[in-house]
Amino acid sequence: MGGATAVGLMAATALTSPAAAQGGAPPTVTAATPLSRAVAQWDEHTARIEPSARVEIRPRVSGQVEAVHFRDGALVPAGALLFTIDQRPFQIAVDSARAELARAEARLTLAEQQVQRYGPLTAQRIAPESEMDTRRSALREAQAGLLAARAALRQAELDLTFTEVRAPRGGRVSDRRVDAGNLVQAGQSLLTTLLALDPVYASFDASEAQYLRYARAARGGLREAGGLRVQLRLLDEAEFSHEGGLDFVDSAFDARSGTIRGRAVVANPDLLLTPGGFARLRLFAGEGQALLVPDAAIVADQSGRAVLTVGADGTVMPRPVQLGPLVEGLRVVRSGLAPEDRVIIGGLHRARPGTRVTAEQGRIGPSPIASAR
Q1: 302-338 residue pLDDT tens
Q2: 3-state class of 242 per DSSP?
């Protein structure tokens, strides 16, 4: 009997709360008002990396590929020779055009001589005027024939130069799509693809609310702002180490997603930013006053993020908040919190919404750790 009583007392002691053990006193927590300071406002997005130019290399003349002059995936400068198409048929066409030009020049010389010869005869009424008209017409035909022959020669020479397929700009080529010996068709056969990689584009989608905020802050329109600042980091990077500027905003919102597409230009001197990859992009939204709290003071539930505040009577009240980026170890609170609110920054595990606590004054400093004083 006595043993059972002892066990019951031990169980009652184990189930007694800390507040009851202290005579019903509320638990103690540390609370402080959020730190208010001017910070750079950034909005983060997921960006897709795209080349600043994409060129499909196709032949401008038909023929047999004679040689390939690049290594698959190589970096090539503008004007680099990529493919050579058999030049012999085009050299023959050039020689034929030159011969036709010489023939046209000879016809023109003969027509000029005949006009000069028949001019005095017509003036002396020895030859009829109609004969002179025929000679003048023949001269004009010879002149036109000469122009046509010269144009045909230029076209033949141009086709000959097209047998050397060169890079229209610098960049990285893909793999070859044809090898030497294959026949290719002008304007149809794809030889390879060239991508310009410095700079690159970073495309992202912004919500309507974000777009309106950017546009109003830009004064005169987002597109005329001269390029808002952007920063980029890859998935394995901790810092936003790549700098760029906004250079394009689409003309309309997407009807399905309600977002608008933006594009930034980012320098890529080391060619680390690879088209097709993803990165985190943050867009500069201006300087402004912001409230900051430690990350440790933020709690999460099914509805989102919140902080716990202490009222004047010591009651714990949750405040749903919208969060921003980290600034010097503190989290920016975009909305949901007032400067005079007392946020619980210590003893958070002892605070429950709707209960009373005893709040000790603390301080939020420019570091991840909030110290009590």
Answers
A1: 778 888 899 888 889 888 888 877 777 788 888 888 8
A2: strand
